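Hey, I'm writing a tutorial for new members on how sequence and structure tokens pair up, and I'd like a real worked example in the thread rather than a made-up one. If someone can provide the structure for the chain below, I'll link this post from the tutorial.
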Amino acid sequence: MGDDVLTPMMRQYTESKARHPDAILLFRMGDFYEMFFDDAKKAARLLDIALTSRDKEKSVPMCGFPHHAASGYISKLLAAGERVAVCDQMEDPRKAKGIVKREVTRVLTPGLTDEPGSMRSDENHFLAAIAPTTKQIGLAIFDLSTGILMVTAVNDPNLAYQELVRINPKEILVPDGMNSDHPLSNLIKDQFYLHEIEDGITDSQACSNVIKDQYGVQSLDGFGLSETVLIVAVGSILNYVKQSRSETPAHIQEPRVYHLGNFMTLDQSAIKNLEIFRNLKDGTVSGSLIELIDKTRTPMGARLLKQWVSYPLMDVAEIRRRGEAVEAMLNSGISRAEIRDVLAKISDIERIAGKISLRNALPRDLVQLRLSIERIPHLLQLLADIDSEMCAEIAGMDDLSYVALAIAAVLVDNPPPGMKEGGIIKPGYNIELDELRDVKLHGKEWIAGIEERERRTTGIQNLKVGYNKVFGYYIEITRSHLHKAPIDYVRKQTLVNAERYITEELKDYEFKVLNAQDRILQIENEIFELLRTKLIEVIPRIQQTASAIAILDVLSSFAETAAKNGYVRPDVNTFDEIHIQEGRHPVVETFNTLESYVPNDIKLNRSSDQILVITGPNMAGKSTYMRQVALIVIMAQMGSFVSASKAVIGIVDRIFTRIGAADYLAFGQSTFMVEMNETAEILHNSTEKSLVLLDEVGRGTSTFDGLSIAWAVTEYLHDKIDGTPRTMFATHYHELTDISLIKERVKNYTIAVREWKDKIIFLRKIIPGGANRSYGIQVAKLAGIPEAVISRAKQILENLEKEEIDPKGRPKLSKSRGEKKAGSRNALQIDLFGRIGDDLFKELSDFDIDNSTPVEALKKIEEWRKKYC
């Protein structure tokens, strides 16, 4: 549609849309946000709202929703992967001359949003930016709601990919035209929401300038941004934010450089297979590690806990500092309980600070901030009784009392949910506001007072004060008393029997009354905006206090979990031994089952017990045993207590898990290919500090191929030149236990079982030695396989175990029940489960060769040939 046929308002719309072609434009019209043309068609489908037409003659598709409900609708659009540009009215329509001025005030994207409905309170909402080169990859992550900004440099594309999986960003910024041949591009293109950004945003000089402008510095050395990829990654984030908002938010924290080498690597496979954040059954949080240990009482604490779980430490000193604090809180008893009660009453002050900076904090947000701050002194008093270095550091937090006082002086204790209702400013704070409220509240009394006073002054007893919409307030005097009208009365209207007058006092009051509500809202908005602007100046202090409270919350959560489940403090060190006594799977032990959980020990090191080959039947607990060791290591290195009676943990740099099987057919990968890819990753990248969990490697191919691969993999890990990792290998290949005869650091363990009346009882106890049976048929029976199948399977197994062959050298299993000997109509039917081989063997054994003639021997052979062939 050409501009010549567009109305001025629609021309304004198309101009704004042209500046944001890749976003759905929300165009504010009065109390609604409207969408037009293709945006309307798309939004109507995604939001399930009616699609109408603004002008039936021109057929302009349109749809919309009330502005007060915008948050929910915007969240739905973002969840669908759409970008949203919000075009607001920049002036009061009642006062505008001509068309109302409108501007795009913010652009919201899946990764860059401040809409509450788009974010979970218990996890960060990250936007990521990558700055790829052939040698290095810069990776920055940013949370608009909290202001967190972190950056790292990675040399390996696979590690960069695993880091992105761990972060789980809602959107990734990639350079425009990023080379599709770049290894990282191929890894992320199908798994994340990607947004290409133009060259101006990623230009290294532009990135350097925007960082300096944001923080008011002349050099980036103080931030540790020593490499170009770091500068470009951080600058890309800041440029993108600046481009998307009307102003750069003040709450963006200084960029923090972190190094992957300071944390244990948990890749996608480990996070999934160990069920750290989601269970394998249905993908929910139920039965996950995070569900078990999350006893946090604040949203800030819940978010920090997930960071600590995702990033177990490698620094032994810091791990011990956390452990010391947890132990002190565990022993504090009553103080810990009181601390947790106080924490439960503290709101999400970290995100409230973000709202203040983004200028969308409402009065209720600030009151919640004030109430939370007012509880900090009690928290500090309770911390004084807990003796630990970390708790002492937390106790040094800014109590922000001046912030609480500033808010308390301005806002009422229970403000309305929005600003339009008014009534948010305390009485006595502003004289004009109090007068206007008084006028609005006591208008009738004032009018009655004026009327009574004028009657006394003029002596006109029937004088009255009235109001109509045409003339406003007036004084009416009947004709018989007109001669008594004071000289300052100004005649306004003549009636048949009376005259109506106005006075300067009456007109002033009329102006106050008629404009009181608008003026009240204007004054309240001005006062509130001034308060919000003042609070922006102390946002860094609020963020520091929020961080301290979050750390306290996580430490108290660890202590609470330890107290509830009987955990112990692990001894984490730089040696290579993992020695756990009476270890339990922290999640499985909490399940309400008919059998009690059986704890088990483990000893792993690189000198004598490097590889544990674990055999035993299905369902006996091999995988659970391995997973519990991994989870105990993770918990120990994040600073938590662990589910054991004693635990010595030599630092682990990465946990590898080759567990489970899945086809990735969409990517052309079978189950076995996936298994081999994961195994190759382990063989190439494990180090002497790694912990490797292998479950049934080789099962995706033939038995001999699989056993050969499993054997070779075990040997390789045992003899690995660049570092022999501590390894647990669960397998059904019993033959693999023989490798301990030739490799001295391989030890065999099995899950103890007991047989009783053709049934098996799982004892769940790990004991030295190897299993000589898999008990697969018994497990199949427990699973409900039909008895006929179970019976036949037993017969087949018995034949296979005896290695029976038919007279032609074929396994008896290969002959069908009805197969006859070739060339014989009435040939003896070979019974698959018969004992012909046994009979022949018996007759051979009984035949007296020493006392038989050659002729007798030949006759006997002929007899056997006829009988058995």
